[in-house]
Design brief:
418 residues, alpha/beta, Immunoglobulin-like, TIM Barrel, 2 domains, nine-stranded mixed sheet, eight-stranded parallel β-barrel, 9 helices, globular
Length: 418
């Protein structure tokens, strides 16, 4: 397993500076943090496939969302998904029906995938059972969920013992027992699941939409920044709970992630906004630093809300965040920021390059010293995502002798140092 990131207070840089130490190896970055969700309700026009392929998605969750629990998926639909994920070279994960689903139906789909040699290793059961009472207007608590989940899980494992199971796919997460989801009897959904099914689950999954408003009120820049910072504690709490409840260190995945699950769009910080792309870059950096195993943005394509990375034939800004991270390394090294509103993440690539991702969340240009321990790089290949550049390669640029770099307002800058 990847080595946990050093405490953010250790090796703290001087105020107003950024510090990277490529000699401090923090372990491999999971290749599956650059994922998204895809399904029958989220079609990608064939004309947009080059842009989707170019974005470097590494994981695809299918069929994604509430549709999972409304139909029994047919083999031909799985065939179509296989064609799609093979175009992208992404790791597939498949969700089977839980609500009104049956162990036999789920097992038959697993058997079909095995017989077709599709190589689908990771499976989940149902989507957001924490919302079933509201969604289906019936009583649904942790006891029923854990019982039904286990029956389906055991049937799937009997059909193919080599598969790995992901769950419980809760619709939200937080950082303490007082703030996580409870059922109608006050029982904690995650704790009860881990106690009942911790022996069967291989990857613990939650969804995270930190800014939710019943009135579709848009988030502000400050709220977005605060929600990104809070994810550090949220992941840490989940890991602690897993260890405490199961005695094991299980991988963690956030299988749906966006700023809000609502339909809000066209606002300065709504999911379709440019700022959402900057926010997501920072969130990815934080989740990488916390050794999250898989992250799936919600969602690859959607016309009716601002949540899709594309809308019809239109690219939304957060797609460019993935194109920035496609050039990031896979071996995490130490990086710290002493500048408020500016965060830095660093990794080594297989070709030996040091990659430094700097996210300026503020609405002002920032000029800060970038200090690379053990080296004084004179130049770097620079990639830029800002209001005027869509993950563009600016080529090899000289770096000042004092290491001072200028970061455009609300921007992501990647420095590739050979």
């Amino acid at each position: 397993a990847p080595t946990a990131m050093a405490d953010e207070t250790s090796g703290a840089p001087a105020p107003g500076s950024l510090v990277v130490d490529p000699a401090v190896d923090l372990g491999p970055i999971s290749p599956y943090v650059y994922g998204t969700n895809y399904g029958p309700m989220h079609a990608v026009p064939i004309e947009m496939m080059p842009d989707i392929i170019d974005s470097g998605f590494t994981a695809l969750r299918w069929p994604g969302g509430a549709w999972t629990d409304t139909v029994d998926m047919q083999p031909f639909q799985l065939d179509q998904f296989v064609w799609f994920y093979e175009q992208l070279g992404a790791l597939p994960t498949v969700s089977v029906r839980l609500h009104n689903g049956s162990p036999e139906t789920a097992a038959s789909l697993v058997s079909y995938a095995r017989d077709m040699n599709y190589g689908i290793e990771y499976w989940s059961i149902g989507n957001e059972p924490t919302l079933y009472e509201e969604q289906f207007n019936e009583s649904y608590d942790t006891e029923r969920f854990n019982r039904e989940w286990r029956a389906i899980a055991e049937a799937m494992k009997a059909a193919d013992p080599s598969i790995k199971l992901m769950g419980p796919e809760l619709h939200q997460w937080n950082s303490s027992l007082t703030t996580t989801l409870k059922d109608s009897a006050g029982r904690d959904w995650m704790t009860e699941f881990l106690q009942a099914n911790g022996d069967l689950v291989d990857v613990v999954t939650v969804h995270r939409y930190p800014y939710w408003s019943a009135t579709n009120e848009p988030a502000t820049f400050d709220q977005m920044q605060a929600s990104a910072a809070a994810m550090n504690d949220e992941v840490a709490y989940l890991r602690d709970l897993i260890k405490e409840t199961t005695g094991r260190d299980l991988p963690v995945a956030i299988t749906e992630l966006n700023s809000t699950p609502t339909s809000v769009q066209g606002q300065p910080a709504s999911p379709d906004s440019f700022y959402n792309a900057i926010w997501y870059a920072d969130v990815l950096g934080r989740l990488i630093s916390k050794d999250v195993w898989m992250v799936n943005q919600w969602v690859i394509s959607q016309r009716t809300t601002g949540l899709g990375l594309i809308s019809g034939f239109t690219i939304r800004p957060t797609l460019y965040t993935f194109q920035m991270y496609k050039h990031f390394g896979d071996q995490q090294v130490e990086a710290h920021s002493g500048t408020e509103g500016v965060n830095v993440y660093a990794a080594l690539r297989d070709d030996g390059a040091l990659t430094v991702m700097v996210v300026n969340l503020t609405d002002e240009e920032q000029t800060v010293p970038l200090q690379v321990a053990g080296a004084g790089p004179s130049e770097a290949e620079i990639w830029l995502l800002d209001a005027e550049h869509n993950a563009e390669n600016l080529g090899i640029q000289p770096l000042p002798a004092d290491g001072t770099v200028t970061l455009p307002a609300q921007s992501v800058t990647l420095y590739v140092i050979q």
